Structure formats: structure tokens, C-alpha cells
């Protein structure tokens, strides 16, 4: 670190042990008690950055050619903003360090030429005296230690001793030493800490933090409004950078990412449903989810973090689209039933009532609080697998009901079969168990004939083919044999 700077870190206990005390309120109290109370001391109170490095909340860059004019404009701008009395500004500072002391060594080239010395030899001697030079290595076993040659500490900070340091050079086979003072003079001066450039222009930055509890975007908008009356000479400009610039770039990137995601989702949905209206209905759910995000931020008074909130909205779009696909597809399945004609409103209500528990399973699995990444992966994968298995089972049972109804219509209205089992009367475990038993029956090949000559078992490939093939092998005028088929099916 540097000797003129110090850092004090305060670590708070967990929130559950703080009895509801907010860290932002404590930071604001510290700022009010310390900042501006000690002359010559610049204090800053801020929290650790949990994400990638970000610029200052208030960051104004003034650019131009003449450095003295830039220095005057930066001081004038800080005074102008301070006089505006904008609340929330912690304290404006400049990145330019003024009055940094330095020792200027001016080489007399005419004298140096007489001794045959170059400026590089003189500068190298001064640097070696102050910072040292590695001349050899000291080896102990397999370890090597560099040997540095430089002046002792009591001479390094003694200017006359430094200027009397001899420059050694070879002339006619003899080593000759010339003091630095014989070919150079020194003067005391002061200069700026650094000079920054941007697009070939000199730049001075005026920056500040924002006191906890205030919105940095609103404060920057107020400063921009006040600076509209601040006149700059021709050839000099200012711009807001730092955190504001990074937010704008992040919003532009996330906006493009959101559009690309929506386009890809729409393309997949149009291909899946072979329609434009249904994908449009599904994508409309993203609008309502986005409204919910901003509503939740406003309700709980949470900070709006552009990057994290944007990524959350894009991720949430995938979840709500998944839910909407399940709902729309299930409603279309209900409307396709032959035994029960459903209108649009009735199908929507019944489909939503049936799918709602499955939605909850998905939401509980997608919003966990994991103690490690593996827990998050496990929760999401298991939740999605459970939902997928439930939906596939529901779709297969609905198809089973439709096949039976088609067979009833082929027989005729005067011959009614036993009513099929309704899906709503079955729980998820019953559906899964029914599905497993049906698969076991499909794998069996029954060769034992029945006592009735017109009716016998056949190899079963599926529930629908079982009903269809059995009906083809019996006399449809014998109602009791039809009921026997349905009894076997149940």
C-alpha cells in the first residue's frame, strides 16, 4: 500500500442476529459523522463489490488539449455542482494529484560531451544509486538470491551525497570517475501525479460515491440537468462514464440478448405448433412475468441491479414459456375430446385447474436456496424430470380415453361400452402405476384361448390396438363379450 492511504473494513454479523438493522442505514450514519469533518482528509464509505469491478457511481470526464485549462474547468465544475446542493453526493474529488514534489536533474550536455559521457550513463548511475541494480547471484544449495547494488539508505535521501556519486567509465584502459554534479545540476519542483489521455485528448475525471439510500441514476440525471447551464470553452467537452456507462452498455447487450432469445423461442414454437397464434399467446406470458419482476422490486424496495436483474428476466422467460406450452398444449388436448365437447372458456378453466399443481412443482424446483451448486443442479433436474413424467403420463392416458371413444363411435350409438376411467379421478401416483402396468401387459404375449370360440386373446402392442384388435375378432352383436373386453382393459 501507499503511506498516505489507509483502509478500514467493518464486517457485519449475519442479518438474523442484527435484529432488523439495515447495513445501509449504518453506512449512512458513518458517512454523516466522518465525511467533511477532518480538514485535509478525504474519506469514502462504500460496500464491497460482490460482482465484477465497476466504475464510480458519479464519474464525469472533462477532455481537452490545454492541461492548465482542464485543471481550471475541473475545479469550477466541482464548485458548480457543490453549489447546486444535490442530496446523495458523498463528496466530489479529482483524479489529478496536484503538488507532487520532484527533483529535476538537468544535464549540461556540453560538459558531458567533454568527458565522453552520454545521458544514458548519467541517468543509469542515478537510478542505480536510488533503486539498485542486480549485479550477481548468491547460491545456497539449489536456491539463488539476487545481489543488489545501491547506495545506503542514509545517502539515498541526501541530495548532496547523491549528486557527488561518481560516474565510472573507461578511458585509455583506465577507470575514471566523474561526479554527477560535474555534468548536471538539480532543482526542486512539483508536478501532477499523472496525465491521462483519451482519444488523443488530455482528460481529468471528477468522481464521487453515492450515499447509501439514494439512487445513483436519479442523482446523475440531476447533475446532468444542472450542468446544462455550465459553459465550456470551444474544444472542451465532458461526458458521464463509470457506472452509468457500464449500465448503458449492459442494458444494450441484455436487450439484444432478450430479442435473440425471443426470436429463437418463437421459431421453435412455430415449428412445434405449426401455428402463429398459439406461440403468440405463449410469448405473451413473458410480458406478465416481467411486470411481476419490476412489481416485486418496487414492493420489497430492492436495488435494481442491471446485469443480475436482466439475466434473471431472460432466465425467467424460459420458465414461463415452458409453463405456457404445457397449458396451451393441455387445453388443446381437452378440446380434442370426442366424448365431451368443451368450449374455449370451459377448456381454459379446466386445463388451468388441472395443470396448476404441476406448475407449482416446477416453480418449487426452479427457485431453490442451495448450499452448493450441486444442490441447485439436483433440484432443477429432479423437478423438471418429475413434471415431465407427470405430463407424459397425463397425455398417454388422455390418448387412451380418445381411442376408446373412437371405438365406441365405430360400433354405433345403439351399442355403448362401459364408461372409461376419468383422468381427474386418478392421482399422480395412480397414473404412474397404471402406466407401468400397461407397459408390462404390452410386453406379454398371451397364447391361452378363451372358452368362447369367437373370442380369444392376441399379442398386445398398445392399449388402443388391444381394444381395436379385440373388437375385430368378436361379433359386435354380443354385448356381453364387449363388456368382457372392457373388463379386461380395466
TrEMBL record:
Residues 433-453 are annotated as: Disordered. Keywords: Membrane, Transmembrane, Transmembrane helix. This is Acriflavin resistance protein. Residues 440-453 have a biased composition (Basic and acidic residues). GO terms for molecular function: xenobiotic transmembrane transporter activity. The chain crosses the membrane at residues 253-273, 280-298, 304-331. One of its GO terms (cellular component) is plasma membrane. It comes from marine sediment metagenome. PANTHER family: PTHR32063, SWARMING MOTILITY PROTEIN SWRC.
Amino acid at each position: 500500500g501507499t503511506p498516505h492511504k489507509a483502509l478500514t473494513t467493518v464486517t457485519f454479523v449475519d442479518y438474523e442476529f442484527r435484529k432488523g438493522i439495515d447495513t445501509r442505514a449504518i453506512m449512512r450514519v458513518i458517512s454523516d459523522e466522518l465525511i467533511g469533518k477532518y480538514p485535509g482528509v478525504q474519506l469514502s464509505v462504500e460496500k464491497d463489490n460482490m460482482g465484477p469491478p465497476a466504475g464510480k457511481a458519479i464519474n464525469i470526464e472533462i477532455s481537452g488539449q490545454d492541461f492548465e485549462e482542464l485543471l481550471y474547468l475541473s475545479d469550477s465544475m466541482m464548485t458548480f455542482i457543490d453549489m447546486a446542493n444535490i442530496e446523495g453526493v458523498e463528496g466530489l474529488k479529482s483524479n489529478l494529484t496536484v503538488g507532487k514534489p520532484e527533483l529535476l536533474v538537468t544535464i549540461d550536455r556540453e560538459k558531458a560531451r567533454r568527458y565522453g559521457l552520454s545521458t544514458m550513463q548519467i541517468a543509469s548511475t542515478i537510478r542505480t544509486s536510488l533503486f539498485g541494480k542486480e549485479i550477481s547471484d548468491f547460491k545456497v544449495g539449489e536456491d539463488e538470491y539476487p545481489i543488489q547494488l545501491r547506495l545506503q539508505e542514509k545517502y539515498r535521501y541526501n541530495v548532496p551525497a547523491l549528486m557527488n556519486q561518481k560516474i565510472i567509465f573507461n578511458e585509455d584502459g583506465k577507470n575514471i570517475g566523474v561526479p554527477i554534479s560535474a555534468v548536471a545540476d538539480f532543482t526542486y519542483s512539483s508536478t501532477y501525479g499523472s496525465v491521462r489521455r483519451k482519444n488523443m485528448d488530455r482528460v481529468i475525471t471528477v468522481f464521487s460515491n453515492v450515499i447509501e439510500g439514494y439512487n445513483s441514476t436519479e442523482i446523475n440525471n440531476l447533475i446532468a440537468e444542472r450542468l446544462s447551464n455550465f459553459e465550456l470553452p470551444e474544444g472542451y467537452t465532458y461526458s458521464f462514464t463509470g457506472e452509468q456507462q457500464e449500465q448503458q452498455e449492459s442494458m444494450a447487450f441484455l436487450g439484444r440478448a432478450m430479442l435473440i432469445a425471443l426470436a429463437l423461442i418463437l421459431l421453435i414454437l412455430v415449428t412445434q405448433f405449426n401455428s402463429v397464434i398459439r406461440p403468440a399467446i405463449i410469448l405473451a406470458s413473458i410480458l406478465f412475468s416481467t411486470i411481476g419482476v419490476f412489481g416485486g422490486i418496487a414492493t420489497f424496495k430492492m436495488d435494481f441491479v442491471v446485469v443480475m436483474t436482466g439475466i434473471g428476466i431472460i432466465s425467467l422467460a424460459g420458465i414461463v414459456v415452458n409453463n405456457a406450452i404445457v397449458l396451451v398444449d393441455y387445453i388443446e388436448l381437452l378440446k380434442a375430446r370426442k366424448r365431451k365437447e368443451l368450449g374455449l372458456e370451459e377448456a381454459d378453466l379446466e386445463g388451468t385447474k388441472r395443470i396448476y399443481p404441476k406448475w407449482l412443482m416446477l416453480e418449487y424446483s426452479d427457485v431453490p436456496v442451495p448450499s452448493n451448486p450441486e444442490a441447485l443442479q439436483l433440484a432443477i433436474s429432479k423437478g423438471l424430470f418429475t413434471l415431465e413424467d407427470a405430463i407424459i403420463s397425463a397425455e398417454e392416458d388422455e390418448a387412451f380415453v380418445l381411442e376408446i371413444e373412437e371405438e365406441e363411435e365405430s360400433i354405433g350409438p345403439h351399442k355403448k361400452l362401459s364408461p372409461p376411467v376419468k383422468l381427474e379421478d386418478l392421482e399422480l401416483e395412480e397414473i404412474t402405476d397404471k402406466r407401468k402396468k400397461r407397459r408390462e401387459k404390452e410386453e406379454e404375449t398371451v397364447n391361452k384361448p378363451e372358452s368362447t370360440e369367437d373370442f380369444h386373446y392376441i399379442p398386445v402392442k398398445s392399449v388402443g390396438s388391444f381394444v381395436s384388435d379385440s373388437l375385430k375378432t368378436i361379433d359386435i352383436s354380443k354385448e356381453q363379450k364387449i363388456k368382457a373386453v372392457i373388463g379386461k382393459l380395466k
